């Protein structure tokens, strides 16, 4: 059964999927930090709890933002990766990075990353997408 | 007392402020729909509850994203408006609009708005900021 939507507003649509404190961090881990395994997401600085991580991975897969497949080298492990829909959140993530860099002096994005973003967001995004063959 | 931060990641910083289903919708109402009064936010299509709205307005004010001032014409009313920090979330909001427009066929952003965004995001943002004299 399709869940009732709150409105036809595109911002609402996005927030219904990524409007929480964790979903975008999981996407960030995959897209910017090349994390693939459950234990790698668990190791992030934000100390996500295992039940929240399991919930968000399932939700992101259901919403078509990530793929989950068996790891051929480790029978019991799964490999997670972003879909094109997930990768297409990069522009949103980049705008958040720039906003926080402007307003939070304690924020520490890698200087090399900021430099690339400031030079050309389009090229920065293309380079990341290329790694995932989209 | 300063709340303990989850990490120095700029995405985490942003999500600690706008990582919920409602904060950005209140910003949207102010910035894109020119809403100013409590009852106007209550009237939005998403049917926000009054306790959530009151909480988010207070939080957004504390975080420096919105101003609250007395309405000189109505003694008991308050007028809310975005600060520059709040307006600077426009690029993030716009990227969400474009992402949703690509992936949700039911999403209905006004065609004139999408046209302006596609022509020039920078000009679209400048035109909105001008209304608020920033």
Detailed description of the structure:
The structure is a homodimer of 134-residue chains. With 134 residues, the first copy, chain A, is mainly alpha-helical. Chain A is built from eight helices and two strands. Chain A has helices at 10-18, 23-31, 38-42, 50-62, 84-87, 90-103, 111-119, 121-131; strands at 66-71, 74-82. The first copy, chain A, has a two-stranded antiparallel sheet. In chain A, a hairpin with a 2-residue loop joins strand 1 and strand 2. In chain A, helix 7 (111-119) packs across helix 8 (121-131). The two termini of chain A are 31 Å apart. The mean pLDDT of chain A is 92. Chain A binds chain B through residues 5-16, 19-22, 24-25, 28, 44-47, 64, 85, 88-89, 91-104, 106-109, and chain B through 5-16, 19-22, 24-25, 28, 44-47, 64, 85, 88-89, 91-104, 106-109.
The value of Rg of chain A in angstroms is: 16 Å
Q: How many extended strands of chain A?
A: 2
Total of helices of chain A: 8
Pairing-aware structural class of the strands and helices of chain A? mainly alpha
Q: What oligomeric state do the depicted chains represent?
A: homodimer
Distance between the termini of chain A: 31 Å
Q: Tell me the β content of chain A.
A: 5-15%
**Greatest interface (CB-CB under 8 A), with counts per chain:** A-B, 45 and 45 residues
Q: What gross morphology of chain A would you assign?
A: globular
Q: Bin the helical content of chain A.
A: 55-70%
Rounded mean pLDDT of chain A is: 92
List low-confidence stretches of chain A.
none
Q: Summarize the main sheet of chain A.
A: 2 strands, antiparallel
> Which strands sit side by side, in order, in the main sheet of chain A?
1-2
Give the H and E element order of chain A.
HHHHEEHHHH
